[in-house]
């Protein structure tokens, strides 16, 4: 077996990318099973004494708590990552996420411990949010900072592969336990995916323990560029990049939970309660197919980006996602599984073409010594504002304005993201042009 010192740069890059991907896939699995359970189970298990529609809203509000905690996780783990390195932070976030998820699988319902059940669920969900607040940014930097300049887009795309990989695993687990009758599913079946997280976390920790520190951070530390308070420094030198990064991340965060949580709930809820009354297994199969399509398409989009540039790929993907909104909602309202699959597939191609390049795009916006904090803040603030709230807002809009109101909400998400990507690209280009004009000292 090769020691770390005998590894070639390519082997270090491969190991870093693999460690980032595996850990991120496990963390997204944990996050996605919560979203699926929020749509299918939690309203009945933890909020049984309120009306079905209100139970769904309460469940989605609990889901949002994880996103509200993400900026705190970004500040905490961003500080540690920029001060002491990326590797150990990623081990800590994976352990924290897996522990919280496993405990949710062991949590008694409202019928057993009363109001303490939803309170404990909220606390554990907040711990999940803290973990993901550091995970995504750290994994992005671990992969991209260890890659060559030409391959950073592809390395970042493989970090993004954690999202569809996690969705595939989560959907497969719920398809498996979904074969149980309703009584068994609500009693113990839904807990199985959460308890399985403990096995995945052990595997992830073993893999991540073998990953070396990122090359960029190692060089920055050797040059004594590490700052004492990265949060203060990032707002002093790059605050506009943070807020443009928030806008550029909106669709990337919102789309997954629009599809895997709100859409799942809307289509499977009975017609009497405002849903489409479709079969739960059918919709889960559609979402599984979409996750597989995303997993296949994202590396292809990254290869295209190596030829034509990451920003064009992102913008074309976003415009496609915007144009497909009306056909998508017509398909959903038809309750036709084939129509939903076809149009949602086109939406996935556009949205995930953009998503494939998002992590490497954001990482280029910040200097190395505050990069973890900057990327984590942009992603975490966006998640707290729109990602976790997407199912809650969409459900509220559906109840008050109907499906076309939700379509309008979706269009706003796409337009804000287009503006964020374009604005951040323009600002980064201007910065790089100024840097190129500054004469270097001999």
UniProtKB/TrEMBL annotation:
It is found in: Cell membrane. Pfam families: MFS_1 (PF07690). Residues 16-431 form the Major facilitator superfamily (MFS) profile domain. Its main location: membrane. Keywords: Cell membrane, Membrane, Symport, Transmembrane, Transmembrane helix, Transport. GO terms for molecular function: symporter activity. It comes from the Bacteria. It is a multi-pass membrane protein. GO terms for cellular component: plasma membrane. The chain crosses the membrane at residues 20-42, 54-77, 89-107, 113-134, 155-176, 188-207, 241-262, 282-301, 313-332, 338-362, 374-398, 404-424. The keyword Transport applies. InterPro entries: MFS (IPR011701), MFS_dom (IPR020846), MFS_trans_sf (IPR036259). May be a proton symporter involved in the uptake of osmolytes such as proline and glycine betaine. Belongs to the major facilitator superfamily. Metabolite:H+ Symporter (MHS) family (TC 2.A.1.6) family. This is Putative proline/betaine transporter. It comes from Glutamicibacter soli.
């Amino acid at each position: 077996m090769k020691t770390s010192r005998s590894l070639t740069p390519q082997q270090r890059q491969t190991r870093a990318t693999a460690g980032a991907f595996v850990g991120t896939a496990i963390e997204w699995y944990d996050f996605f099973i919560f979203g699926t359970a929020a749509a299918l189970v939690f309203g009945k298990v933890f909020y049984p004494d309120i009306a079905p529609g209100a139970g769904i809203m309460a469940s989605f509000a609990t889901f949002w708590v994880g996103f509200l905690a993400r900026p705190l996780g970004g500040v905490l783990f961003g500080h540690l990552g920029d001060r002491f390195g990326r590797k150990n932070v990623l081990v800590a976030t994976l352990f924290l996420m897996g522990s919280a998820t496993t405990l949710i699988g062991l949590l008694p319902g409202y019928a057993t411990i009363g109001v303490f059940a939803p309170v404990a669920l909220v606390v554990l969900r907040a711990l999940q949010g803290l973990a993901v607040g550091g995970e995504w940014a750290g994994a992005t930097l671990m992969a991209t900072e260890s890659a060559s300049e030409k391959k950073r887009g592809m390395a970042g795309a493989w970090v993004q592969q954690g999202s569809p990989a996690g969705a595939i695993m989560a959907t497969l687990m719920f398809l498996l336990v979904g074969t149980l009758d309703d009584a068994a599913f609500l009693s113990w079946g839904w807990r199985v995916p959460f308890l399985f997280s403990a096995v995945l976390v052990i595997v992830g920790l073993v893999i991540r323990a073998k990953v070396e520190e990122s090359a960029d951070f190692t060089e920055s530390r050797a040059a004594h560029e590490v700052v004492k308070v990265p949060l203060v420094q990032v707002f002093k030198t790059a605050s506009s990049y943070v807020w443009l990064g928030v806008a550029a991340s909106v669709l990337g965060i919102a789309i997954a939970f629009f599809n895997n949580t709100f859409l799942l709930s809307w289509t499977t809820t009975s017609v009497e309660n405002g849903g489409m009354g479709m079969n739960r297994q059918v919709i889960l199969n559609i979402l599984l197919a979409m996750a597989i399509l995303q997993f296949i398409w994202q590396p292809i989009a990254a290869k295209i980006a190596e030829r034509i540039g990451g920003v064009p790929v992102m913008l074309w993907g976003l415009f496609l996602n915007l144009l497909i909104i009306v056909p998508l909602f017509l398909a959903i309202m038809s309750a036709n599984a084939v129509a939903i699959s076809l149009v949602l597939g086109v939406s996935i191609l556009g949205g995930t073409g953009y998503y494939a390049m998002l992590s490497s795009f954001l990482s280029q916006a910040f200097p190395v010594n505050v990069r973890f904090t900057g990327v984590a803040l942009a992603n975490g603030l966006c998640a707290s504002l729109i990602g976790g709230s997407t199912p809650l807002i969409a459900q509220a809009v559906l109840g008050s304005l109907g499906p076309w109101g939700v379509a309008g909400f979706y269009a706003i998400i796409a337009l804000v993201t287009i503006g964020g990507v374009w604005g951040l690209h323009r600002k980064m280009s201007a910065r790089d042009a100024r840097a190129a004009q500054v004469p270097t000292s001999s």
